Every structure is written in structure tokens, then in C-alpha cells.
Automatic annotation (TrEMBL), chain A:
Transmembrane stretches, start-end: 12-30, 69-98, 119-140, 160-190, 197-219, 239-258, 304-320, 340-358
Record-stated family: Belongs to the binding-protein-dependent transport system permease family. HisMQ subfamily.
Gene Ontology cellular-component annotations: ATP-binding cassette (ABC) transporter complex
Species this protein is from: Sphingomonas pseudosanguinis
Alphabetical GO biological process terms: amino acid transport
Name of the molecule in the record: General L-amino acid transport system permease protein
Every ABC transmembrane type-1 domain range: 77-358
Keyword tags: Amino-acid transport, Cell membrane, Membrane, Transmembrane, Transmembrane helix, Transport
Automatic annotation (TrEMBL), chain B:
A single Gene Ontology CC term: ATP-binding cassette (ABC) transporter complex
Species this protein is from: Sphingomonas pseudosanguinis
SUPFAM superfamilies (UniProt xref): MetI-like
Membrane topology qualifier: Multi-pass membrane protein
A biological process term (GO) from this entry: amino acid transport
Protein family membership: Belongs to the binding-protein-dependent transport system permease family. HisMQ subfamily.
A molecular function GO annotation: transmembrane transporter activity
Gene3D superfamilies linked to this entry: MetI-like
Keyword terms, alphabetized: Cell membrane, Membrane, Transmembrane, Transmembrane helix, Transport
Name the UniProt record assigns to this protein: General L-amino acid transport system permease protein
Length: 370, 360
């Protein structure tokens, strides 16, 4: 067979396949254009500048209905990110004790940990979210009979009211100290100096507590008014249900990843640790954990991407995250194509970003093979 | 970092290898005892309340009025379970979804033992799916027609799972082969599809499907909600299964394909007869775990207005005659999902142990 012929046979099917895919896409695009024209929808992103005119019940970024659609979408994205970061942090912290409980010899702790993980992992997240939403809206008492488990914390069917502590005077020096501490921690963690990074974190927390105490604190307790509580920090039932549901769900998965990581470290490492005279706890902390951490990195990456994706379910109980805002935008403007494109790009970029960051971190802590 | 040891280190006792007894595990040292006491105290504080709610104050028979200001309203479940399980399917015809569910339960149980993994079983599944669809629809086989918009409850959950798997799996095998192909165009397309679908939340995909599918089709062609949701679920199943199958393909030594080709088999024959059987056999446990994920994912179709188990439960709860016993309803729905998913998860674990693959 001539070389030219082989090359021809190599490329022809591929070009044919590409042509088929392109033709298919073109046919679909023509249908879309046709359908949009018939419904009188003009494509384009100009709608983004118009006033959104729909309310967003809660957001960490400031928002009012006179703001533009573009800002509404950014606010939705802000809520998604806020929720995801919070869930990722809390669930990873909760995952470790659950994993250790499952690995322990303590019969009760083991059974409880195992039962929790099995129960959470084998039921759909939506069912759990709806259950928790029912629990915080129907299950909790009305404001007048608020349940007060601790002084200054009130559980009601309208939300959770917490006492907050504000600083007397300027908070600027403390904020600067915290920022400096965070930057230092981030740089150290990036360089793979995890030990120094954790010391810096601890120092930052201690310094900010000392500075806060030096300034003096002002207590802001929620007070029951005629209809509802005012003052302090209010968490809406939607937020409480979503946070609770997502954290419990994610922590069961995090626990399994951590347990898997610890179990994957060869048994000889434990035995070697004991042989050189380390205690069980020392072996876990100094020998097994650092190795387990490397094994956990890839599954943890997909876990964080999953948390981001699962946060979209917040829409089921009415927490206004990105999908919720985009769906409302599409309903109001009819700009389905643009809305979907924005949604897809946002999620693909965020998943990509998480993978990129985790892979970089992974490369930092990976074993240098000789 | 190094240091010179000047004094001998304290000698620790030799490690204990034997498993501690139950008493020792609960009260062996201070920490265990503390944990035992703590867990017992929490249980003692919570269990009486739970018992009072579920049993002592629980309402087993009666109507909505009997449930007001009482404990668990089990009477609600007695009244609403048929609706939650079968949705708004006409009451006189409910034997049809029951038989359809029965077909899938029998097929699943039949397929569990390894000696039943044969071609006949595969055809049995295809026949079962067709039979279930015909029975549910009814028109083709001379029964009263029931449109898909009236299908609901558990049959929808099971049908969506089975159909997205049945349609997604062949696509997944092709995508996995495509992703490992030496042909760049094929590789890019497969990788692009897999990563696109995996990067998007399923909820967004369901939205996209429900909004975009009508726009993508030529004028006059409409497809129902069930099919739109099925498209999204199948795409998602295909992408996730493809990654599992790819893992299996990576585990088959290259020599297998080379040997098959050297025997004179074509590429397609080598794949079908030599490589894929080994690859898929190796990943049956993770494939079973993916089934659990897909079963759980079907619950998301409530956002596009399909009437699955969970949506039916929500609708039942909105009945003003009852005081919305959400906990009982969601616990029952969770229990149904849990039974299915936990059984599959245990089965996967069992296969992992008995398929005799040596790890590491």
C-alpha cells in the first residue's frame, strides 16, 4: 500500500465523521434559528443591561430588582460559590471524625458512622433536602414560641436567629491582620509547607481574637418584635435546609474518601510505625496521614466538583443560586439560548478551575519518584 | 532534619494484634468509655421522643383531622401510598404499572447470579423493556390508552433508570473506545462530549433538555416531557459509564489486542470478542455503583415537571385535608430509594469480593 493511500485511509473516515457532526449541528442550529424567528425572539446579549425586576430572596452580594440581569446572574453565581465553599470546608472537616469513627474499634462509634454513611449515600440528595426543608419550616415552632437551645440562638419556622458580636471602633487593623495571615497561609500551602501553613492559620486566629478582645465587643441579640425577630444575624429556612442537607450529604462522601485513603496506605507502614516505637496516634498523624493525603487528592478533586454541582439542587427548596436566577431570567426574557450558554460556561469554568487548582496542589504534594 | 538521640527512648509495649472484645472496645480506655457514655446519653435523651412521636402518639387509622396536633401521621401514608407509588395513572388500570414494576424486579433478581449473565438474559431485558412500555401505554396492545403525562410514581423512576442505562451503556462503550482511539477527530469528539456532560450539573442538563429540545427540533415535531428528561439522563449516564468503561479498557494489557489482531481478527472483532469482554468484566462492580448514582439521579426529574416517586410525594403532601406530614412521607420515599440503592451497593461489594480480582 502506498504511503499516500494509507494517509488517505487514515484521514477520510475522520473527515467524514467531522462532516457528519458539523452537518448535524448545522441542522439543529437552523431549527433553533427557525423556531426563534417564529416566536419572535431576538438573539443577543443586550437583555443583560436591562433591569431584572425580579426579587432575589437572599444574597451575599447586594442586590435589588432595579439592578440589571447581568448583575442578577452574578449575584446568583455569588450565592452558588458561597454555598459551595462553605459546604466543602465544613464537610471535609466533618468527614475526618466520621472516617476515624468507622475505622475505630469502638463498636458503637463504628456502627453509628457506618449507618450514617450508608443511609446518606443511598438516598437521593433531593429527598434529603426536601426533608430538611420540611423540618425547618413545618417542624420548627412559630416566632412567638421560638425554640431557644442556647441563650441568644432562636430556631423558628421563619429562620434561624443568631446573636452576633460586632467590634467597638474600627475593625480595619484586625481585617488587615487576618488578610496578611490568609495570604501567608496560602503562599505556604502553595509551596507545600503544610505544617508551617497550619501554624500560621492558628497564629492568625489567635491574633485576631486578641485584637478583637482589645477593641471590645458589642453584642447584638435578636429581639422578638410584634411579628418577628429583629437584630442579630438571620439565616433563612431555605439557607439552613440547604446548608444542612448539602453538608451532611457531602460529609458522608468525604468520610468515605478519607477512610479509603487511610485504608489504601500499606499495612506495613502501620507496622513500621509501631516498630520504631510510635504510638497509634503518632503513626496515624506522622506516617499514615501524609501518605493517605496524596491518595485522597484525586477523589477529593471530584468531590469538590460534585459539591459545586450538587449546590444547584438548592433551587428545589428555593434558595436563589445560579440555576434559579438563570431559569427566572429565561422565563422573564425568553432568551433561552443565551441563558443556557451563560449557565454552561459558568459551570464548566468553575469545574475546570477546581480541577486546575487541585491538580496544582496535587503536583505540589505528590511523591517525587526516583 | 536530623538529630542525634542522646537518651534511650521509652520502650512501648508490643503491639496487640488480637481484636478487642466488645466490652474492651466500649470501655477499654478513658476515651472509649467517654464515647460510650456520651453516645448512650444522647440516645437516652432522643429515643423516648422518637418513640413517642412514632408509636405512642402516632396515628395509624383516621383522617386528616385525627392527625392534627398528634405524633406521626401513618394514616396519611395508608391513604396516599397508592398515589405516591403510581401517581395519576387511572385507578382501574393500576395493575399495568404493577405488572411493569414486577417485570423489572423479576428480571433484576434473575440477572444477579453470574451464571445468568448470558445473551438470553440480555434479550430478556430488551423484551421486558418493550413489554413494560407497551403495557404502560396500552394503545398498541388493545388496552385503554394512557398518555405518558399520566404515568407516575415508582414506574417512572424505574423506567427512567432502566432506559437511561440501556441506551446509555452502548453509547458509553463507543465513547470509551473513541476516547482511546488513535484518530484525533474521534478522540476530540468523545473527550469533548464526556467532559462537557461531566462538567455540567445534571439539574442544569435537565433544564437545558426541557428548554432546548423543543427549540432544536423542526417545526411541528414535538416530544413529551418524559422523553426530554430521558435525553438528559441518558447523556449523563453515557458520560459517567464511559469513564468507568475506559478504566476497564486501561486495565486490559495491550498484548491482548495485539494477540487478537495477530490471529487475524479485525479491529472490531478484536474489541468485541477479546478486549471488551475482559474490560467490562473487570468494571462490573463500579458499573453497579454507577447504577446507584443513576437511580438517585432520576429523582431530579421533578424540576422538569415529571411525576416520579418524589414529585408524587410532594403533590400528596399539598393535600389541604391533611396536616402535611412531610417527615413520614419523605422517610417512606427515602426508604424505597434506600432499599434499591443499598441492595445494589451491597451487590457491587459482593461482586468485588468474589470476582477475584487482585488489587495492588
Amino acid at each position: 500500500m502506498a504511503r499516500g493511500g494509507a494517509r488517505w485511509r487514515w484521514w477520510l473516515p475522520q473527515i467524514g465523521l467531522l462532516a457528519m457532526v458539523v452537518a448535524g449541528l448545522a441542522w439543529l442550529a437552523a431549527n433553533v434559528a427557525d423556531n426563534l424567528a417564529r416566536r419572535g425572539i431576538a438573539t443577543g446579549l443586550s437583555f443583560l443591561d436591562r433591569a431584572a425586576r425580579f426579587p432575589i430572596s437572599e444574597s451575599i452580594l447586594p442586590y435589588s430588582p432595579v439592578d440589571s440581569f447581568a448583575w442578577a446572574i452574578i449575584v446568583g453565581l455569588g450565592n452558588t460559590l458561597f454555598l459551595s465553599v462553605l459546604v466543602a470546608a465544613i464537610s471535609t472537616l466533618l468527614g475526618l471524625p466520621i472516617a476515624l469513627a468507622r475505622r475505630s474499634d469502638h463498636a458503637l462509634a463504628k456502627a453509628l458512622g457506618g449507618g450514617f454513611v450508608d443511609l446518606i449515600r443511598n438516598t437521593p440528595l433531593v429527598v434529603q433536602l426536601l426533608f430538611w426543608y420540611g423540618a425547618v419550616t413545618i417542624g420548627l415552632p412559630p416566632s412567638a414560641e421560638a425554640w431557644q437551645p442556647m441563650a441568644g440562638i432562636f430556631f423558628t419556622d421563619r429562620g434561624l436567629y443568631l446573636t452576633t458580636f460586632g467590634l467597638v471602633g474600627s475593625a480595619l487593623p484586625m481585617l488587615l491582620a487576618v488578610a496578611a495571615g490568609l495570604v501567608a497561609t496560602a503562599i505556604l500551602a502553595w509551596r507545600g509547607k503544610l505544617r508551617q501553613a497550619s501554624i500560621t492559620t492558628l497564629a492568625t486566629v489567635m491574633i485576631s481574637v486578641v485584637m478583637a478582645c482589645a477593641l471590645g465587643l458589642q453584642r447584638d441579640t435578636p429581639v422578638l418584635g410584634r411579628f418577628n425577630f429583629s437584630g442579630g444575624l438571620t439565616l433563612t429556612p431555605e439557607f439552613v435546609a440547604v446548608l444542612l442537607g448539602l453538608v451532611l450529604y457531602a460529609s458522608a462522601f468525604a468520610a468515605e474518601i478519607i477512610r479509603g485513603g487511610i485504608d489504601a496506605v500499606a499495612k506495613g507502614q502501620w507496622e513500621a510505625g509501631r516498630a520504631i516505637g510510635l504510638s497509634e496516634r503518632q503513626t496515624l498523624r506522622l506516617i499514615v496521614m501524609p501518605q493517605a493525603l496524596r491518595i485522597m487528592m484525586p477523589p477529593m478533586t471530584s468531590q469538590f466538583v460534585n459539591i459545586l454541582k450538587n449546590s444547584t439542587l438548592a433551587l428545589v427548596v428555593g434558595y436563589p443560586e445560579l440555576n434559579f436566577v438563570t431559569a427566572t431570567t429565561i422565563n422573564q426574557t425568553g432568551q433561552a439560548l443565551e441563558g443556557i450558554a451563560i449557565l454552561m460556561i459558568a459551570f464548566l469554568m468553575l469545574s475546570g478551575l477546581i480541577s486546575l487548582l487541585m491538580n496544582r496542589l496535587n503536583a505540589r504534594i505528590a511523591l517525587v519518584e526516583r | 532534619m536530623s538529630y542525634v538521640r542522646t537518651a534511650p527512648e521509652a520502650i512501648l509495649p508490643a503491639p496487640v494484634v488480637a481484636r478487642p472484645s466488645l466490652a474492651a472496645s466500649l470501655f477499654g480506655d478513658a476515651a472509649s468509655s467517654l464515647a460510650t457514655v456520651f453516645i448512650t446519653l444522647v440516645a437516652l435523651a432522643a429515643l423516648p421522643h422518637l418513640f413517642a412521636w412514632a408509636v405512642t402518639n402516632g396515628v395509624w387509622v383516621g383522617d386528616g383531622e385525627a392527625c392534627r396536633d398528634a405524633g406521626a401521621c401513618w394514616a396519611f401514608l395508608r391513604a396516599k401510598t397508592p398515589f405516591i407509588l403510581f401517581g395519576i395513572y387511572p385507578e382501574d388500570e393500576r395493575w399495568r404499572p404493577m405488572v411493569a414494576v414486577g417485570i423489572f424486579v423479576v428480571l433484576t433478581i434473575w440477572s444477579l447470579p453470574r451464571k445468568h449473565w448470558t445473551r438470553a438474559t440480555l434479550f430478556g431485558w430488551i423484551a421486558g423493556i418493550v413489554a413494560a412500555l407497551l403495557l404502560m401505554g396500552g394503545k398498541t396492545i388493545g388496552l385503554t390508552e394512557v398518555p405518558t403525562s399520566a404515568w407516575g410514581g415508582l414506574p417512572i423512576t424505574i423506567l427512567l433508570t432502566v432506559l437511561s442505562l440501556a441506551l446509555g451503556f452502548p453509547a458509553a462503550v463507543l465513547l470509551a473506545l473513541g476516547r482511546r482511539s488513535p484518530h484525533p477527530a474521534l478522540r476530540w469528539l468523545s473527550t469533548g462530549f464526556i467532559e462537557l456532560v461531566r462538567g455540567l450539573p445534571l439539574l442544569s442538563m435537565l433544564f437545558v433538555a426541557s428548554i432546548m429540545v423543543p427549540l432544536l427540533l423542526p417545526d411541528g415535531v414535538t416530544i413529551d416531557n418524559l422523553f426530554r428528561a430521558l435525553v438528559a439522563l441518558t447523556f449523563s449516564a453515557a458520560a459517567y459509564l464511559a469513564e468507568v468503561v475506559r478504566g476497564g479498557l486501561q486495565g486490559v494489557p495491550r498484548g491482548q489486542e495485539e494477540a487478537a489482531r495477530a490471529l487475524g481478527l479485525s479491529w472490531a472483532q478484536a474489541m468485541r470478542l477479546v478486549v471488551l469482554p475482559q474490560a467490562i468484566r473487570n468494571v462490573i462492580p463500579p458499573l453497579t455503583n454507577t447504577v446507584v448514582v443513576i437511580v438517585k439521579n432520576t429523582s431530579l426529574v421533578l424540576v422538569v415537571g415529571l411525576f416520579d416517586l418524589l414529585s408524587a410525594g410532594r403533590v400528596a403532601l399539598s393535600d389541604p385535608d391533611w396536616p402535611a406530614p412531610y417527615a413520614e412521607t419523605y422517610l417512606m420515599i427515602a426508604l424505597i430509594y434506600f432499599t434499591i440503592c443499598y441492595a445494589f451497593a451491597r451487590y457491587a461489594l459482593h461482586l468485588e469480593r468474589t470476582l477475584g480480582q487482585v488489587r495492588r
